[in-house]
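User: Fold this; tokens only.

Assistant: Input:
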Amino acid sequence: MIQLLEDLLAERIAVDGLADQAGARPADTFIENIVEEVSLAYDHLQITTRGNIDGQEFMIDRKLFRLIMNNLINNALKYSSHPERPIDIHSRVEKDVLTVCIADQGIGVPEHEITHLFEAFHRAGNVGTRQGTGLGLAIVKGAIDRLAGTINVASMENQGTTFTFTIPLATAANEVAC
């Protein structure tokens, strides 16, 4: 019940625009902080991060970005077939667009269900007894849409899943004053 309430609150944040104010901050440090926070909740967690955004400052809506990253990382961990298999997070910026890929080596998604992953309350048929409401990816999609971004998924059953999302960014230097 607590998880359902948290998911509903997150949905409200993503949909109703109860978003944090964007502020200039180094994107790489922010991503690393989110990964570190998630890592504290799991034993034997292996997450590798890499990218080309070292020290670059961008305007990022912290709450929506954290919501996206937390959901995708937690899903990668939840649906990994073995906890000791690493989660790979890769980020890059090209032409003021942040691209983040989160890949696991987990149970994957049946091909015929991939198109339904972002629908509220949809859960793939192979999730077994893993807890969830089927709202997480709908929330992620809503948050990414709110940030004018895109999200794609590539998956093969028993081999893993990769979520790739993009978000257009304004650099602190290019921020338009009102």
